[in-house]
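Audit log entry. Action: structure prediction of a protein-small molecule complex. Ligand: manganese (II) ion. The ligand was supplied as SMILES and no pocket hint was given, so placement is left entirely to the predictor. Protonation state taken as written. Sequence taken verbatim from the request; no trimming, no tag removal. Recorded inputs:
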Amino acid sequence: MSIENEIWKTITSARCVLLTSHERVDGDGIGSELALMHMARGAGVECVIINDEAIPVEYEFLPGAEKICKISDGRQDEFDLVVSLDSASLERLRKVKDRLPKGVKIINIDHHISNTQYGDINWVGHEASSTGEIIFNLAQANGIAITPEIATCLYTAIITDTGRFCYSNTSSHTHLAAAELVRCGASPSEISRQIYRAERSNVLRLRQLALATLELSADGQIACIDVAAEMHRQTGTKYQDTHDFVDMPKSIKGVEVALLFREIAEDGKTRVSMRSEGRIDMNTLAQKFGGGGHKRAAGCTIDGSIEHAHKCILPVVEKLLETQRQNEKEQ
Ligand SMILES: [Mn+2]
């Protein structure tokens, strides 16, 4: 049996499915969870979506978003199957990991190269732009009708994980999937308006403060910006408001590696988001610090202040760039 058929058969044989995704869930995680919920409910299977935290406001327009629970809601449902979406490891489920019934069957559907294959059934499609694209393949392979609701959720998953079809993970298959989703009822203009043209003025002010910290190094090949907890207090914003801030240093001409340092006020840690133009492997870099991700996009969490995180990471990036430069010269 193909993996697509095996997964769908397992889902449709379950009594109650827990759908979940990684901590600080993003458009791909949410879109994939909701699309699969609609698909499973269409087949008469009960589903509950529980994430570590609440979803960012810009995804509240998605059909079914009001049904998404957070771990603090304390739901007591009994699950006989877990489908983990877009999460490279069990640890990235954070508190949801502790909520999993002992010995429950886990399906792991993801596209991160750092995925630890933690499921009983694993479908890790490295070539897919997004988990949403994999769920699209699941629907197609099983002849599941794509309703406008499913199409809207999957289109959202794909555009957010491809940076609106700009990142190198965008393939011809990604565009074909998106085209089919539009044919099935997804509205590109409405979805883009909801996600990209709904910025609040205080978030724009936060951007202003973050941009003021811009630092370039290694002859302009490394660009980094910081978001301190104090900036959130000044502007009345939240950590989640900065999910795309790394795109600001990334947009500078000549920048090979862009870094975003975000202070997590509650636990004295700094979250580091890493983006590369492709010469340096960000997954390898992030793994040196206990994180992971993709070749061009990864992240890790450093114990300590933003300043400390700079001191840990910048010299390593500079060294990697220098080694890469030497290698290219020798070739
Ligand atoms: Mn993803």
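Audit: result stored. The mean pLDDT is 96. The chain is about 40% helix and 20% strand.
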